[in-house]
Recover the amino acids of this structure.
């Protein structure tokens, strides 16, 4: 079964570890930025989807459904080459960020909408009767509760975002972890060793983020 | 509406690509679901002290980008001399990935069945197997099926990645046409529409099931 | 009678020994099929005709080799990133896929002597004002990740500072990015550049001056330890030139001019 005529050259691949770690930072950076942008848009989308105005509801629904029903790879490819045919040129970095943020927003909007519905109507009424404005009530009473309910799905989305950053190579992204590993791979043909190290790094990034999220949750949401 | 050089022949080319997408998805989901149910039952009935190696491996499958997994397995099967075709490699990787996701769905669903209900079943003299098939399964199915549909759709969309190994599925077929026809926006829109047409109705069905079953609770 | 047994035993032994020693070259000859990894989005070296059948210089080269071996050729379509896995896994016996013979890669796979040589040119759009190679300074450029000209271009861009270099995963994506305006120029093998300009698919692309990267020699690749096969490949490449078949294929796929010289002056391979 394991009749290797191939000799693994781990030392050779490990020499590139510092560059791969730099790439891992870029990966983390894009994932975090895309999540922040995604959350901001998702809150708007979640509110807009239950709006009584069709001109708010329709585009928000379209965004959510397209984001959820087409591949992330397609969305990123579209952000680069699709928009490119309209003369809108996003650099690989921006296209990747835009594609993932678009995807994040679509998924998180549904999460937030579900969370909003879980918050009793009485909370809003209580806020209003204390003399708060509609926006103020939403910001101070509803949103914090929404984030608490949606926190776990949001951390999951963060992990998805990390995984999605690997798709940047298809639009010419060269500085993230996958981009750097693929470039080294094309130079040396040491595919297995390089991608195995990359897999370990991705796993560590994902675990670190989950751990960080748990710490934040503990700080923010303890009663 | 659009002035395009795309022919029916080209559209058929894309639809054949969509067929490949569906075929890979079907194989991966079938294999992954079987494995995932077994793993899920193991994970939810045995102590974590026993199942941690399994949990660890499944966790890796969920935390490493699918692209990396595909490339890694492809080069490993190459090194080991198994001589798998890119199609086989893709199906294996996607099936394992599906299994990791389905395991969590099954575990969540099984754990959602109240402990008291299961104890009641056992105290009525049901065996473990009877408890599993007649009490846990029907109740867990309601909780798990909508999530399982989401997993299936996720795998269908993620299968676009197998283009990396040279398989001409829907997205790769569109790239080939883009190269020849130079109409990226139009062709990509068609590709997006095909994905949407496949995914949207099933997603809606899942939502409806979830809603109806929740109302009956 | 006794002799027959001894003979049979000896024959059996030698057969077993023979089986143990059989190398890739034997495997190819006895299986009757030569499987060549060829990259089919790299015209005119490899592409597909209207019926999606593989065509190109590399495809013909593989067919010639199969004929010399007395076997049937089978083209395995491999994108650039899949060339090595295809080879190592035994999905393909050899790769005739314009693989630059860098020392770094030769640590992993075996190369034949060069079977083709590319020179590189600047390819740009008609509205960028780029002509000479030096005009690329400070511009956004791109190329296929990891190929000879990409490595050289990236290094040069680093040296100049400013501008960006983007590695794409296929030649098709590079041309798409270039014609859309995502990047302003690429450096690409002259053969590919003229094929793409002549195809008429990209009316706004023009060929600029030659890039000072030296000559990009490409070899046929095989498993590093298959000396028998690599020896055969070396002789085959030599014979292709000697018999004039190399010039013939060059004229068929690249047209006119004399085919590039495959030798380096002043040194043995």
């Amino acid at each position: 079964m394991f009749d290797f005529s191939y000799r693994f050259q781990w030392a050779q691949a490990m020499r590139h570890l510092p560059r791969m770690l730099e790439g891992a930072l870029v990966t983390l950076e894009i994932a975090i930025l895309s999540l922040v942008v995604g959350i901001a848009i998702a809150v708007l989308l979640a509110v807009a989807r239950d709006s009584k105005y069709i001109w708010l509801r329709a585009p928000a629904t379209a965004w959510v459904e397209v984001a959820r029903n087409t591949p992330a790879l397609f969305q990123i490819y579209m952000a680069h080459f699709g928009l490119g045919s309209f003369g809108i040129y996003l650099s690989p970095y921006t296209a990747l960020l835009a594609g993932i943020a678009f995807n994040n927003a679509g998924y998180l909007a549904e999460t937030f909408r579900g969370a909003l519905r879980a918050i009793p109507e009485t909370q809003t009424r209580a806020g209003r009767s204390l003399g708060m404005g509609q926006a103020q009530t939403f910001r101070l009473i509803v949103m914090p509760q929404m984030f608490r309910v949606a926190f776990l799905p949001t951390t999951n989305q963060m992990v998805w975002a990390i995984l999605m950053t690997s798709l940047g190579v298809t639009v010419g992204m060269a500085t993230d972890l996958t981009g750097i590993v693929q470039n080294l791979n094309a130079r040396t043909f040491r595919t297995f060793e390089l991608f195995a190290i990359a897999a370990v790094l991705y796993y560590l990034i994902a675990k670190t983020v989950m751990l960080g999220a748990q710490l934040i949750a503990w700080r923010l949401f303890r009663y | 509406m659009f002035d395009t050089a795309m022919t029916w022949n080209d559209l058929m080319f894309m639809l054949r690509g969509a067929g490949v997408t569906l075929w890979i998805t079907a194989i991966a989901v079938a294999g992954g679901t079987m494995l995932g149910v077994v793993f899920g039952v193991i994970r939810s009935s045995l102590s974590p002290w026993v199942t941690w190696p399994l949990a660890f491996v499944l966790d890796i499958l969920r935390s490493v980008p699918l692209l990396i997994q595909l490339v890694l397995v492809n080069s490993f099967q190459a090194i080991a001399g198994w001589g798998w075709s890119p199609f086989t490699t893709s199906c294996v990787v996607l099936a394992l990935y599906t299994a990791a996701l389905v395991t969590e769905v099954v575990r969540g669903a099984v754990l959602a069945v109240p402990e008291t209900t299961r104890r009641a079943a056992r105290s009525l003299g049901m065996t473990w197997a009877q408890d599993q098939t007649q009490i846990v399964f029907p109740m867990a199915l309601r909780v798990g099926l909508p999530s399982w549909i989401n997993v299936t759709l996720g795998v269908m969309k993620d299968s676009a990645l197998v283009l990396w190994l040279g398989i001409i599925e829907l997205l790769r077929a569109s790239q080939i046409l883009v190269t020849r026809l130079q109409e990226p926006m139009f062709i990509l829109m068609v590709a997006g529409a095909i994905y949407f047409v496949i995914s949207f109705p099933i997603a809606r069905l899942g939502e409806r099931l979830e809603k109806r079953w929740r109302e009956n609770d | 009678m006794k002799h027959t047994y001894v003979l049979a035993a000896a024959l059996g032994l030698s057969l077993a020994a023979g089986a143990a020693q059989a190398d890739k070259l034997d495997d190819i000859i006895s299986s009757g099929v030569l499987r060549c990894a060829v990259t089919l989005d790299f015209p005119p070296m490899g592409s597909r005709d209207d019926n999606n059948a593989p065509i190109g210089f590399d495809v013909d080269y593989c067919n010639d080799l199969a004929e010399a071996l007395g076997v049937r050729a089978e083209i395995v379509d491999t994108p650039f990133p899949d060339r090595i896995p295809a080879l190592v896994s035994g999905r393909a016996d050899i790769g005739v896929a314009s693989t630059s013979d860098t020392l770094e890669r030769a640590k992993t796979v075996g190369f034949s002597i060069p079977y083709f040589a590319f020179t590189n040119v600047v390819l740009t759009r008609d509205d960028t004002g780029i002509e000479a190679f030096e005009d690329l300074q400070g511009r956004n450029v791109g190329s296929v990740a990891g190929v000879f000209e990409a490595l050289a271009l990236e290094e040069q861009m680093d040296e100049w500072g400013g501008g960006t270099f983007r590695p794409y995963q296929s030649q098709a994506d590079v041309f798409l990015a270039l014609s859309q305006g995502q990047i302003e120029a690429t450096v690409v093998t002259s053969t590919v550049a003229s094929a793409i300009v002549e195809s008429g698919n990209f009316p706004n692309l023009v060929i600029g001056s030659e890039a000072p990267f030296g000559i990009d020699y490409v070899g046929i690749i095989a498993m590093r330890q298959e000396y028998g096969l690599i020896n055969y490949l070396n002789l085959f490449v030599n014979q292709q030139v000697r018999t004039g078949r190399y010039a013939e294929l060059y004229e068929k796929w690249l047209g006119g001019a004399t085919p590039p010289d495959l030798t380096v002056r002043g040194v043995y391979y």
Summary: Chain A touches chain B through 41 residues (CB under 8 Å). The radius of gyration of chain A is 21 Å. The longest helix of chain A spans residues 17-49.
